[in-house]
Amino acid sequence: MTAPTPAIETQGLSKVYRGRAVVDGLTLSVQPGEVFGFLGPNGAGKSTTVKMLLGLVLPSGGSVRVLGGSPADPAVRARLGFLPEQFRFQTWMTGHEFLRFHGRLAGMTADDLRTRIPEVLEVVGLGGRGHEALGGYSKGMLQRAGLAGAILARPQLVFLDEPTSALDPIGRVEVREIIERLRGQGVAVFLNSHLLSEVEQVCDRVAFVKQGRVLQQGSMRELMGGVLPLDVRVDTLPPGLLDTLARYGELRHTDTNTPGRASVELWLQHEDAIPQVARAVLDSGAHLYALTPRRPDLETLFLELIEDTPEASYAPEVAHA
Ligand SMILES: Nc1ncnc2c1ncn2[C@@H]1O[C@H](COP(=O)(O)OP(=O)(O)OP(=O)(O)O)[C@@H](O)[C@H]1O
């Protein structure tokens, strides 16, 4: 059996603006039916990367293939969906007209659009509102209309740039459900969002980028499974206890500011060390009040990774296929 054609495949992709590489040797692959989170601080090169993947910006170097072809190929572009963070729209157009305009540009027939438009309006939660002018839509409704436009032509790869920034919590859950449905249909989703708790829930894999380079990429499980922070709370820290604990993991934080109470954050490689930590505390004569393993969330990982990486100096990329 031959492997499916990746939805996105880049090798050493780069973009240089005024002598500065804002995307610098980016190697990524996204499979059909995969939801891929593309994360990084402001100015990391995310939008520039998306523009190159959409064929809107010409790369300075490296290669890019989208749905097995070039993003410059109109036949490839017709199979892409894109929700920009701030999409422009004509206020006088109704939701229906806006979608019809988009659909015609994507080469859809009038017949197809007659059934497809009410269908996507329903999917994004705008059922029955398509006859209203976009100028009267709320910010959340506009974002929903943009999403409807992105999925209208049944794309095989969808780029979503901050798709829930204007939505309330219910709207966010609905967008997550839409993304999950797309995945179920074998559509690849390239998601750019600063809402990491959301990314965590919906993405199969994520890449962290900074200054145009991938710091780390992998599945959520791979990224989350690496370390296990353990909160240890005791009444006091007898001499030598910290040294003993440091044998089981990395001491991240110690707080002894409150009399009769001390807490230590210890980063373990594996949960098998927890009973040994408990024994070490008891052997030291301290009273153990809490021993709490904590799964690091994506936000913690993101901050650790971004803050620990000095400007223009990078740890080797850990790539997980
Ligand atoms: N057309 C351009 N000409 C010159 N520099 C540019 C151009 N487009 C982007 N840049 C620069 O490239 C860098 C990366 O910008 P980009 O918009 O790709 O980052 P981003 O990760 O999407 O940021 P944000 O999260 O703030 O949207 C920035 O320093 C930006 O100033």
TrEMBL record:
Give the protein's recorded name.
ABC transporter ATP-binding protein
Q: Name one GO molecular function term.
A: ATP binding
What are the entry keywords? Answer: ATP-binding, Nucleotide-binding, Transport
Q: Has the keyword Transmembrane helix been applied to this entry?
A: no
Q: Which organism is it from?
A: Deinococcus rufus
Domain ABC transporter, chain residue ranges per copy? 8-236
Note the InterPro entries from the entry.
Answer: AAA+_ATPase (IPR003593), ABC_transporter-like_ATP-bd (IPR003439), ABC_transporter-like_CS (IPR017871), P-loop_NTPase (IPR027417)
Keyword Hydrolase present in the record's keywords: the answer is no
Q: Show the PANTHER family listed in the entry.
A: ABC TRANSPORTER RELATED, ABC TRANSPORTER, ATP-BINDING PROTEIN
Question: Which family does the UniProt entry place this protein in?
Answer: Belongs to the ABC transporter superfamily.
What Pfam families does the entry give? ABC_tran
